[in-house]
Amino acid sequence: MGKGNYDCIIIGGGAAGMMAAVTAADNGKSVLLIERGDKCGRKLAITGKGRCNVTNNCTDEEFFANIPVNSRFLYSAYSRFNCTDCMDFFERCGVPLKTERGNRVFPVSDNAHDIVSALENACKERGVEIHRGERVKSVLAEDGVVTGVDCGGKVYNAVSVLIATGGKSYPGTGSDGDGYRFAEALGHTVAPLKPSLVPLVTEESFCAEMMGLSLKNTALSLIDSKSGKTLYSETGEMLFTHFGVSGPMVLSASSHIRSMERGRYKLCIDLKPALDHAVLDKRIQRDFGEIPNRLFANSLSKLLPAKMIPVIVRLSGIDPDKQVNSVTKQERTELVKLLKCLTVTIKDFRPISEAIVTSGGVKVSEVSPKTMESKLVQGIFFAGEVLDVDAYTGGFNLQIAFSTGVAAGNNM
Predict the structure, then answer these.
(1) CA–CA separation, 55 vs 73, rounded Å?
(2) pLDDT digits (tens, 9 = 90+) for 178-188
(3) How deeply is 386 buried, as exposed, middle or buried, from its count of CB atoms within 10 A (0-12, 13-18, 19+)?
(4) 93 with 118: CB under 8 angstroms?
(5) Which pTM value belongs to this model?
């Protein structure tokens, strides 16, 4: 094809875009990948705290159980490129992988840049033309057929254009919602956007008092007070912040909140998950027995982190100036209950810019699940986070990006 003419143009050099470029090039297509930032895979490089949780080494049933929104749409794409296929791809690219807790898959090197480099090298080896630092202003179509893209006066022509621009989370990595604008301009419906895998704002001010305190080996449960159901329960890490709570378990819990209503959702934090109520009570009695004349306010240092002690003392209702040998059985019982379920009330999500994933996006009923092609405009394709599909944490969202990227690349 002549200069400025391509078989396929891909907008967005993230996980979905690069995987689609590799796949389309494998099918003998001439491919132009346009990335508005100065680097490809910027969001990919920061996932999993820079380690990149690339996929999940799970069964098909487990995979779909972790997709709360529009999982059926993914059946076809996932069946053609599943978690095993994804792992095989990166191993073939020279990135050894390992499986950790929760079947999460990481590069053995614990370096996300190895995944980004593998995709970039795969593009280069196949002759994909990559334009970095160039921004698509609009997608061009005539009479319901795509013709190319306009990069601010510079037009590139193609019979297929893939929109793989990501969501609205982490705008610093280049995903600020351009794809939704392109989709709407082409006549597509965009389901309301909201943050998912995001820190949570709490009603209680005591979280701010413990700002910076990280808890490990803590159990967290998300409870819907409207239905009385426990929506999520996990043991792991969390963090108190100036606005509320964050950390891996909190991010996971947030994706189970489908409709935010102030006061509806509560988090129960079990500070001592390894001890039941009776055993914890005996532990407290033993601690108190060693320091019978000490004031209650100064008695919990063996049990709790220093930042948490003033909060627990206040919430317990026990007089801080009371000697521990005067603490009653009833007071001790209430203290145990508090330690086994420190409750915080969810007020709101943090802004979408702080979310790992954007929930909502291009309506999947307007996209072919087999090909990822638009049902409204011939030659337009969608892949990755721009679609109204999202998953829980654990490598599932990246797998969605790779599976939909492969589907689009095979059909462009």
Answers:
(1) 19
(2) 899 999 999 99
(3) buried
(4) yes
(5) 0.81
Alpha helices in 224-328 (DSSP H): 248-254, 277-290, 309-316
Q: How far apart, in whole angstroms, are the C-alpha atoms of residue 49 and residue 37? A: 21
What are the residues facing 239 on neighbouring strands? 214, 246
- Residue (of 378, 291, 5) closest to 158 by Cα position: 5
- Domain residues of the chain, as ranges? 5-194+359-411, 199-349
| CA pair distance 221, 213, nearest whole angstrom | 19
Look at the block and give the residue holding tokens 């610093």: 172
What's the rounded Cα separation, in Å, for the pair 196 and 258?
9
174-225 confidence digits (pLDDT tens)? 556 789 999 999 999 999 887 778 899 999 999 999 999 999 999 999 999 9
User: What residues contact 27, with CB distance under 8 A and at least 6 apart?
Assistant: 409, 410
Q: What is the dihedral of CA 77, 81, 86, 88, to 10 degrees?
A: 180
- Which helix (H) or strand (E) segment holds residue 7: the answer is strand 5-11
Helix axis angle for 15-26 and 396-411, nearest 10°, is: 30
- Annotation: CATH topology of 5-194+359-411: FAD/NAD(P)-binding domain (3.50.50)
Rg over CA atoms, the chain: 25
Cα distances from 372 to residues 20, 291, 315, in angstroms, run 11, 67, 53
Q: Give the pair of three-digit tokens for residue 278.
A: 């009776």
CB 132 within 8 A of CB 13: yes
Rounded to an integer, what distance in angstroms lies between the CA atom of residue 171 and that of residue 283?
Answer: 48
Secondary structure class of 350 (helix, strand, coil): coil
**For range 149-172, the mean pLDDT:** 86
Query: Looking at the domain that runs over 199-349, which CATH code has it been given?
Result: 1.10.8.50
More confident residue, 242 or 168: 242
